[in-house]
Amino acid sequence: MLADTQDGLKGSEIGQLLERLEIEDPGAGITKWKRLEEAFVRRQNQDGHPQRIITFIRRVMEPSKYVHRPELFTLRQDQLNEVLTFVGLRVDEKGVVRRGAQSSTLDEASRNATSLRAELRRRDTHDEVLRYCTVELLKKNNFHASLEATKSVFGRVRQMSGLGGDGATLIDAALSLGKSGEPVIAINDLASQTDRDEQAGFANLIKGLAGMFRNPVAHDPRVLRTVTDTQLLELVTSLSMVHRRLDAATINRQSTS
Questions:
Q1: Which of 29, 124, 137, 242 is least surrounded by CB atoms within 10 angstroms?
Q2: What is the pLDDT of residues 193-241, one digit of tens each?
Q3: What is d(CA 231, CA 237) in angstroms, rounded to the nearest whole number?
Q4: Angle formed by the axes of helices 70-84 and 127-138, to 10°?
Q5: CA–CA separation, 246 vs 219, rounded Å?
Q6: What are the pLDDT digits (tens) for 42-99?
Q7: Please, what is the end-to-end C-alpha distance for the chain in angstroms?
């Protein structure tokens, strides 16, 4: 994680930190992860304990370095904690490495990391949901995360159906049986009344989620509405179910003509 190509430390940052902490630097001529691995292993073998490595992590995670990119702090904290939990450690909100719950399985690691993003991954949240709200999750902004996550369904329906519009009008145009009995997007083969009822219920579910989560958040000031972690998890789980039904849906664009 510390040497990740996109979100990890730059090579110059690694060099500066190793020098400051008097950890022998293998040099910049090798990949960043290998450079850090060799540096840490040598220091561990020299000291017989990991304190200097823990200090390195603490220096990386000093909150003052993330004033303009708080989402990067959260991303690194989450990823570090999912690994450190296997040795009973975690990075707290102050960037300090402390004792924490120890994990022995990947599932335990995801839970013990105490990260909303980790829990969403453990629940196998649909990629389309995360694509819309990952930035808000990293900023720990549940209010806007719930709004953006709900938008993911309407964006998907527009993309699949080729229709414009939004909200209930869009859902009715794309998913309702209408006079022809052939919706633009069908989640089953509509061969029985049960199938048709399921199709109608699916459309109503999406409209209900918009009414409960998107519309109030879109109109109310953030100071007047709180979206808890539990509420956001429940919403995202429901939205993931909607997207998975859309994954297997069939499209009849002739219904739009």
A1: 29
A2: 999 999 999 999 999 988 887 665 555 565 556 888 888 889 999 999 9
A3: 10
A4: 110
A5: 28
A6: 999 999 999 999 999 999 999 999 988 888 888 898 889 888 989 999 998 899 999 9
A7: 51
101-135 confidence digits (pLDDT tens): 888 887 777 666 656 777 787 788 999 998 888 87
Question: To the nearest 10°, the Cα dihedral for 197, 189, 236, 212?
Answer: -30
Backbone dihedral angles phi then psi of residue 90, each to the nearest 5 degrees: -155, 155
Q: Supply 191's token pair.
A: 């061969």
Here the tokens at position 11 are 């090579």
Q: How many CB atoms sit inside 10 A of residue 75's CB?
A: 21
With helix as H, strand as E and coil as C, how does the chain read? CCCCCCCCCCHHHHHHHHHHCCCCCCCCCCCHHHHHHHHHHHHHHHHCCCHHHHHHHHHHCCHHHHCCCHHHHHHHHHHHHHHHHHHCEEECCCCCEEECCCCCCHHHHHHHCCCHHHHHHHCCCCHHHHHHHHHHHHCCCHHHHHHHHHHHHHHHHHHHHCCCCCHHHHHHHHHCCCCCCCCCEECCCCCCHHHHHHHHHHHHHHHHHHHHHHHHHHHCCHHHCCCCHHHHHHHHHHHHHHHHHHHCCEECHHHHC
Residue 253: Cβ within 10 Å count: 12
List Cβ<8 Å contacts ≥24 apart for 86-94. 89/54, 90/114, 91/57, 91/61, 93/63, 94/63
Global pTM value: 0.61
> Whole-angstrom Cα distance, residue 165 to residue 157?
10
